Amino acid sequence: MKKHTVRVYPSKEKLDRKDQLAWKIAEIATDNAPIKADVVDMVINRIIDNASVAIAAANRRPVASARAMAIAHPRNGGATVFGMPNDQKFDCEWATWANGTAVRELDYHDTYLAADYSHPADNIPAILAVAQQMGKNGKELLKGIVTGYEVHVDLVKAICLHKHKKDHIAHLCPATAAGIGTLLSLPTETVFQAVQQAVHVSFTTRQSRKGEISSWKAYAPAHAGKLAVEAVDRVMRGEGAPSPIYEGEDSVIAYMLDGKDGKYEVPLPEVGEEKRAILETYTKEHSAEYQSQALIDLARKMKPMIKNFDDIQSIVIHTSHHTHYVIGTGANDPQKMDPNASRETLDHSIMYIFAVALQDGTWHHVNSYAPERAQRPDTVALWHKISTVEDKQWTAWYHETDPDKKRFGGRVEITMKDGSKIVDELGVADAHPAGARPFKRADYIRKFDILTEGIITKAERDRFIGLVENLENLTAEQVQQLNVQIPIEKLVNNKRDTKGIF
Fold first, then answer.
1. Engineering a disulfide at 345: which of 173, 213, 240, 397 sits with its beta carbon 3.0 to 4.6 angstroms away?
2. Nearest to 285 by CA among 429, 453, 101, 106
3. Are 303 and 418 in a shared domain?
4. What are the MmgE/PrpD C-terminal domain coordinates in residue numbering (predicted)?
5. Per-residue pLDDT tens over the stretch 401-441
6. Domain end position, chosen among 222, 249, 280
């Protein structure tokens, strides 16, 4: 790996394109680096993971709406849409929109946390959709996904977006464009322009994850994927992009991030070096914001220590800056304490999540968010006794550069009404690579089976798992079947409607 210094250059100080970050990204997207078996294995795991959460969310309103929009754009030789029959194909950018929304809706797939946040598996829907439409085989698809992960993780390691209230899809979009460039074996110049376009069009605010969180939280990464597909299409036709996109004096660093004096050190593999960033990412065992994963496991562990929840005076969670200010009381969002809040908002309230996990000793992707669960008087009472504080040590652990030393959990102090305290802590979730029960292939398949039970047939389950486990050897025709079908009568919004414009 090599760190590249990225800063703002005044227009009079010419920056050669080969010294620009977008060019360096394009160079690694267009090399021919080897891919080892452990990386192949993890790509397969994440395709299974994406499919499991997408099928579980298939009939939720945002996903059904996105699917209806995709169905309005049929295309012979196009891409598949989660749940729909494999013989029905749609324009790849609209399949990206529908599938990306399905993957993101439950907030239940993989994550990487460093200087910023990310869900790197959000790269997969667009890269897979383009692969299907462009007739690419399994090996080509694999290479594209590996690039998407590498670029995404490396940007997240170096450039903080949330500090400036920018949504994290600004790193996703250029990563996806780079991954599509690898998939299609495009020239470095073409990928360079596509990455720049992707950056330019994908900067949005973090209001999508603040206050009353709406369904846009699920749509945002799908939108970024769709923008990436369109950016690549334009540059393949010979169009260019604003340049230099990161370093320009009127561009994103200067006016959206750290300003004219801003400077970042972005790590990227050398040209020809293996891209292994996917191995630093981690999936979720629980359907909740990643920074709650370890705390759900900790609540499960602490539950037997509580004889009577009414005897609790207060609960304080000592945790990182990110957790406190994004999903904790440091966010100052009254909606995070509201029993009538949306699922998306409850998913971003560690106070709610910890209260339910402590009472139930478990977490469920549907039941734990049900209105009757959120509005239970004893839960509301406990929920409102919980607060968070930033602990500088937990913040330091959160930002550790050594992946084996990173910690995303916290220390919980439960004070009882008699003055006694119950204290425990957990650094990483049980399913994390450094956790008590790191997820392996069997765990991904178990998660798939749990989330798709009663939705798909066993024959369809076996067909999909068998196909994806042979990813490297899939023909282009088999890649076009890399989708999970739901019996059509179980799928809402399964045909074109007239509700919208399309």
1. 213
2. 429
3. yes
4. 286-472
5. 787 888 999 999 999 999 999 999 999 999 999 999 999 99
6. 280
pTM: 0.91
Crossing angle for the helix pair 138-158 and 169-183, to the nearest 10 degrees: 150
Q: What is the pLDDT of residue 208?
A: 77
Integer CA distances (angstroms), 407 to 60, 76, 391, in order: 33, 48, 12
Query: Residue 156: inside a domain, yes or no?
Result: yes
Tokens of 423: 């204290």
Pair (268, 403) in one structural domain:
no
The confidence score (pLDDT) of residue 147 equals 98
Do both 302 and 342 map to the same domain?
Answer: yes
**Sign of the C-alpha dihedral, residues 141, 91, 456, 53?**
positive
In this prediction, residue 488 carries a pLDDT of 96
Burial letters 432-467, b for 16+ CB under 10 A, else e: bbebeeebeeebbbebbeebbeebbeeebbebbbeb
Number of domains in the chain: 2
Domain match, 108 and 231 both? yes
Alpha carbon distance 389, 329 (integer Å): 8
Q: What is the model's pLDDT at position 404? A: 81
Buried b (16+ CB within 10 A) or exposed e, 24-36: bbbbbbbbebebe
Contact in structure between 502 and 80 (CB atoms under 8 Å): no
Residue with tokens 């067909």: 463
Residue 378 belongs to domain spanning: 290-426
Judging by DSSP bridges, how do beta strands 312-319 and 386-390 pair with one another? parallel
Residues composing the chain:
502
pLDDT of 352 reads 98
Structure tokens belonging to residue 28: 């690694």
Do 341 and 226 share a domain, yes or no? no
The three-state secondary structure class of 399 is coil
Report pLDDT for 213. 64
